[in-house]
Specification:
The protein has 331 residues and is an alpha+beta fold. The chain is built from 14 helices and 7 strands. A hairpin with a 4-residue loop joins strand 5 and strand 6. The chain is globular and about 60 Å long. The chain starts with 9 loop residues before the first helix and ends in a 6-residue tail after the last helix. The structure holds glutamine (GLN). The site of glutamine has 12 residues, from loops.
């Protein structure tokens, strides 16, 4: 059932929406050729450049999926919002916010510049690598597997199964990521790391290498849209205060240095990763006209051909188009 369409014939509405989304996906798929797949990790370089898929899951189970829907891909930077959530749940908000700020940088995700240029040299936000590494270092546990256990439990609750780490992605990330090591040493010198540097990096590389599907991303988005409550049982999975911060961070910093444009032209909280995934949150909204998913939905997108900022080239265009057609914007 599709939400927000109570006055229309449900089956027809669902078919119309599906047809529309199918057409939009075929249209924007042509634009994947303008992007490039990430090449710095072999697993990412091997991705199908022309793939484009979307999954939209509404609060009462209405689902629309189109394009490349079965592929598994590594979650990459989308994990940063999840480890932030876990750190807040384990350590409390003020503990986390004392160590990582919530300001957008306008710089690339792996930029080191702001760390040097500001006082105190606190990482700007949990979605740039310096902040994400700091967050990984404060997760509870002595080993990387222990540190990621709460994340896996949270993911299992949301997506219904325990996802796996893509070992090939993890190993190549570990063996190539010199810049992350440099950021790590910098954080170590400044006293931000709460665990051994090696364990912190291992935790970060592993969290980025978790395999997911667009349905998984849509389910995560839906729980955030539902203020942290399970959409079926209304049981609390993530505290409301934490989801509020997470969504604010996604809106202001979630799309790297294209976050401002995304907020202006799409207008919903979202987080992207270099594998071409995007997890987006559409909160419930009040509109005079009938629009799909008025009670809120989660959206997962996969399109590995990236733009210059490292976001899915066609994925952003597709989201922008749907947001305009269905008036999804918060504003
Ligand atoms: N593996 C990534 C890194 O280089 C995550 C990057 C991303 O998705 N932007 O840190």
């Amino acid at each position: 059932m599709v939400q927000g369409s109570a006055n229309l014939n449900m089956e027809l509405t669902e078919k119309w929406l599906q047809d529309y989304v199918d057409n939009w996906v075929s249209f924007f798929k042509k634009q994947t050729v303008e992007g490039e797949v990430a090449s710095y990790i072999p697993v990412l370089a091997a991705a199908d450049r022309e793939a484009l898929g979307i999954s939209i899951i509404g609060k009462n189970g209405g689902t629309i999926k189109s394009g490349t829907i079965e592929s598994k891909f590594t979650i990459q930077s989308i994990s940063k919002i999840l480890t932030f959530i876990v750190a807040c749940m384990e350590r409390g908000l003020s503990y986390v916010l004392n160590r990582v700020d919530v300001e957008p940088t306008g710089e690339a995700f792996n930029s080191i510049m702001h760390l040097e240029m500001t006082q105190p040299k606190k990482p700007f936000n949990p979605l740039v690598n310096s902040g994400a590494l700091t967050i990984s270092s404060m997760l509870e546990g002595n080993t990387s597997d222990q540190k990621l256990e709460t994340l896996f439990i949270l993911l299992e609750k949301i997506i219904g199964y325990r996802p796996e780490i893509n070992v090939e992605a993890y190993e190549s990330e570990r063996d190539t990521s010199m810049r992350n090591r440099a950021i790590g040493y910098y954080l170590l010198e400044e006293g931000y790391l709460e665990s051994d540097l090696g364990i912190t990096l291992e935790t970060y590389f592993k969290q980025c290498s978790i395999d997911v599907t667009i349905d998984d991303l849509a389910r995560i988005g839906l729980v955030l849209s539902n203020d942290g409550l399970d959409p079926d049982t209304e049981e609390e999975i993530i505290p409301r205060k934490v989801t509020r911060l997470a969504k604010a961070l996604m809106l202001t910093c979630g799309m790297y240095d294209a976050s401002g444009k995304f907020a202006a032209y799409v207008g919903i909280p979202a987080k992207s990763g270099v594998s071409g995934g995007i997890m987006a949150v559409v909160p419930p909204r009040v509109r005079e006209e009938e629009f799909p998913f008025l009670e809120g939905c989660g959206i997962g997108v996969y399109g590995p051909a990236l733009d210059n900022q490292g976001n899915s080239m066609a994925g952003i265009k597709l989201l922008r188009h749907i947001a305009n057609q269905w008036d999804l914007s918060l504003f």
